[in-house]
Amino acid sequence: SRALKPVVSVALQNGAKNFSTTSEMKIKVAVLGAGGGIGQPLSLLLKQNPLISHLALYDIAPFTPGVAADLSHLDTPVKVTGHKGPEQLCDALTDSEVVVIPAGMPRKPGMTRDDLFNTNASIVRDLTLCIASCCPKAIIAIITNPVNSMVPIASEVMKKAGVYDPNRVLGVTTLDIVRSSTFVGEINGVDPRTVKVPVIGGHSGITIIPLLSQSQPPCKLTDPAQIDKLTKRIQEAGTEVVKAKAGFGSATLSMGYSGARFCNAILRGLKGEQNVVECAFVKCSLAESEYFATPITFGKNGMDKVLGYGKINEYEQKILSQAMPELLKNIKKGVEFAKK
Ligand code: NAI
């Protein structure tokens, strides 16, 4: 435990409080789709997380054990194992308390997230089926797009298997929050890490609703046309990256960063830290849809509380109303697919 002391101090610097000993820190995290554009940088960051004891990297790509071997040389205490192909999936999942899923196809220029549905729906369904049997209590963080449909699919699969806990199936929308903080930080001329902007609704196009009226510190923009422009930039920021990568993928590095941040929030909750807040796309009754992105807190069982979104202004109310039919449609598509 002496060798682990520096690890505890890193954990404390990162805001992870109230741990008595390092020996309690035994959390296994599985990354499904670990060989991909998101999976690799995400795993690189998770290998540096002091709250993780074992990182299991799974992908259908044949080079997955190589990614694990590469990462295992980092001088951090996290054990890394590589698992390739469906026959090794259960090994990766067994004893995992957190499962992060970035497996699946990303967008190419001209595609919407919904265009990925046909390919990614069966990937997420099949992976969730294995989670239901190998680690039914794990907290599942879904990065695969379209998130608005993948969370309902995973939830229905867990329901069918009789192991569904809505607090443990979370859609990752953190990149929308990270982008909002970055853009408002630029506008206000401050460190973006000090900016907090809740983003609600869903995770695609018009369903991404940044609550700029609740920005802390307040966003300097006051002109409604400029607010509208910034809102649209946040909604289309993913497409900005897809276009710039010109057919070679979508956001991977910023998503790896965001996924690692979201995973850290889950881990801090698991360790008993209070008041850890992030937005996520979850089952809740805030809107007419069954699932909705909202600020939540984390606890020992995944999502602890749905914080809701408080008071929103007229403009935000309008874009939220406009987004609801699309969000409802995305959710229905996922539910129907899983029920087939
Ligand atoms: P990528 O194509 O670079 O990597 C995907 C990986 O998934 C590949 O290594 C592939 O072998 C693997 N894979 C495919 N089927 C699998 C299966 N059945 N089991 C395990 N692994 C499997 O794609 P990238 O850029 O990493 O994106 C992954 C997903 O994340 C896409 O659906 C993308 O749209 C989504 N995404 C989500 C964001 C969010 O904010 N939630 C942001 C950016 C991307």
Automatic annotation (TrEMBL):
Residues 173-337 form the Lactate/malate dehydrogenase C-terminal domain. NAD(+) binds at residues 33-39, 59, 120, 143-145, 255. The active site is at 203 (proton acceptor). Residues 27-171 form the Lactate/malate dehydrogenase N-terminal domain. It comes from the Eukaryota. CDD domains: MDH_glyoxysomal_mitochondrial. GO terms for molecular function: L-malate dehydrogenase (NAD+) activity. Its EC number is 1.1.1.37. It catalyses: (S)-malate + NAD(+) = oxaloacetate + NADH + H(+). One of its GO terms (biological process) is malate metabolic process. GO terms for cellular component: mitochondrion. Substrate binds at residues 107, 113, 145, 179. Keywords: NAD, Oxidoreductase, Tricarboxylic acid cycle. SUPFAM superfamilies: LDH C-terminal domain-like, NAD(P)-binding Rossmann-fold domains. The keyword NAD applies. It holds the Pfam family Ldh_1_N. Homodimer. Belongs to the LDH/MDH superfamily. MDH type 1 family. PANTHER family: MALATE AND LACTATE DEHYDROGENASE, MALATE DEHYDROGENASE, MITOCHONDRIAL. This is Malate dehydrogenase. It comes from Trichoplusia ni. The lineage of its organism: Eukaryota, Metazoa, Ecdysozoa, Arthropoda, Hexapoda.
